[in-house]
Amino acid sequence: MVRILNFAFVAAMGLSILALYDVSERTRLAHVALTQASRDIAHEQERISVLQTEWEHVANPERIATLAQSKLALDNRSSAQLASVQELPRNGDESPLSSSPVRNANAEAPAQ
Fold first, then answer.
1. Integer Cα distance of 98 and 75 in angstroms
2. How many CB atoms sit inside 10 A of residue 68's CB?
3. What is the SS3 assignment for 92?
4. Which domain holds residue 63?
């Protein structure tokens, strides 16, 4: 009876050692994956900060205004400034932005 009991305890000890080894190995693999993910996150944060710096340079209003003047010959002033609602053109009245009257846009499909 003692031998059977000793054999059962040794078998249980062996199974618990194998289970603990499996848990230890899974923990090690999870730690490796977590370390890699942390490195990837840090790398992406660096790339995001570089992109933000480049965007601040590209979207600088002074730079855009300079490019608009040099490449497109645009000014930074509006073509017409309306001071009140009464200056807006009514249907059929002459527009202050052009010499042609305001018209409704209608499109008809050609008959086939």
1. 18
2. 13
3. coil
4. 2-74
Which amino acid appears at position 91 of this protein? Answer: N
CA dist 90 and 99 (Å) reads 14
pLDDT in tens, 8-40: 999 999 999 999 999 999 999 999 999 999 999
Tokens of 97: 């932005």
Q: Is residue 24 part of a domain?
A: yes
Asked whether residue 52 is domain-assigned, the answer is yes
User: What is the total count of domains within the chain?
Assistant: 1
Residue 94: φ, ψ to 5°? -80, 135
Residue 55 lies in a domain: yes
Q: Where are the alpha helices (DSSP H) in the chain?
A: 2-58, 61-72
Note whether residue 86 is domain-resident: no
pLDDT digits (tens, 9 = 90+) for 37-77: 999 999 999 999 999 999 999 999 888 888 888 888 776 66
